Amino acid sequence: MRACQRHTLLCALPWLLWAVAPGRPAKPPTQSAALRGAPSDPARGADFNHVYSGVVNLSTENIYSFNYTSQPGQVTAVRVYVNSSSENLNYPVLVVVRQQKEVLSWQVPLLFQGL
């Protein structure tokens, strides 16, 4: 069977983003020296098991593109860790994870209504 190429694009506005690929041994993340890709390219290539940090505001966004391949019928998952030092509820950090057929988004800080 032909391998199914999956392209995961993380469109994130995080101050800290940590993605851990499944099936890899747990090890402390390392600081990435630089993202791959041209500086003008909004979606820069990123590596799993690396910590990416930066500062965002109302007019900027950080886009990290993670690629992985899975076999048909194989169950895979990606874990994303996002942390923001801001507690401003008027301007939350919006995190969007886009995969081949799915989109997941949330804001940081995350508010639970009615709890």
Automatic annotation (TrEMBL):
Keywords: Glycoprotein, Membrane, Signal, Transmembrane, Transmembrane helix. It comes from the Eukaryota. The lineage of its organism: Eukaryota, Metazoa, Chordata, Craniata, Vertebrata. It is found in: Membrane. Residues 1-25 form the signal peptide. Transmembrane segments: none annotated. Belongs to the SID1 family. One of its GO terms (cellular component) is plasma membrane. One of its GO terms (molecular function) is RNA transmembrane transporter activity. It is a multi-pass membrane protein. This is Uncharacterized protein.
